[in-house]
Amino acid sequence: MTDSTSxxxxxxxELATPAATGCLGVALADVLRPGDVxxxxxDLGTGKTALCRAxxxxxxxxxxxxxxxxxxxLVQVYDTPGWAIWHYDxxxxxxxxxxxxLDIEDxxxxxxxxxxxxxxxxxxLPRRAIHLTLIQTGETSRRVDVEAQPHLLSxxxxxxxxxxxxxx
Length: 168
Ligand SMILES: Nc1ncnc2c1ncn2[C@@H]1O[C@H](COP(=O)(O)OP(=O)(O)O)[C@@H](O)[C@H]1O
Ligand SMILES: [Mg+2]
Hints:
Layout: E1 9-15, H1 18-31, E2 37-41, H2 48-60, E3 75-79, E4 84-89, H3 104-110, E5 112-116, E6 130-136, E7 142-148, H4 150-167
Helix pairs in contact: 1-2, 1-4
This protein binds adenosine-5'-diphosphate and magnesium ion (MG).
Residues 15, 17-18, 21, 42, 44-50, 69, 116, 140-142 line the site of adenosine-5'-diphosphate.
């Protein structure tokens, strides 16, 4: 884990179907570790929650795990065998400091934090955050641009390819 994104690189992945987004969730479960922060950008309906759901189900090891959007609760917490996952939707956060009441410090230190609408955190968003931007390219297709350290991107890319091959 590093606290700088100064040497961050970019990776673009085509998510041609919702199943491909599911495979990216599986790939994320392969590479994310405690202390990782995923900042998920993209317009409403681009698949931020869908991707988080796929990741959480893979990380928890239960494809039937209920993963509601934290639209109103702002945060939902899940236990994996190794650590907790904090899933935030901060669209309704009025000011960055309000995130302290949502245990954001614990999430950043002890678990994996998934954050929809990360701009609401302002300067409280850790500089080490991995940035994912989802873009709608068709009714059922998306593209995701990932900005992170090069070593993480190459592991993610390999895990995504493997997950897609395994799903065939
Ligand atoms: N390739 C795809 N990847 C992810 N979601 C997709 C895809 N194609 C269609 N969708 C649909 O887009 C919607 C995304 O909704 P959601 O995940 O709640 O978006 P957000 O959290 O970004 O507002 C879902 O209805 C999902 O089924
Ligand atoms: Mg959402």
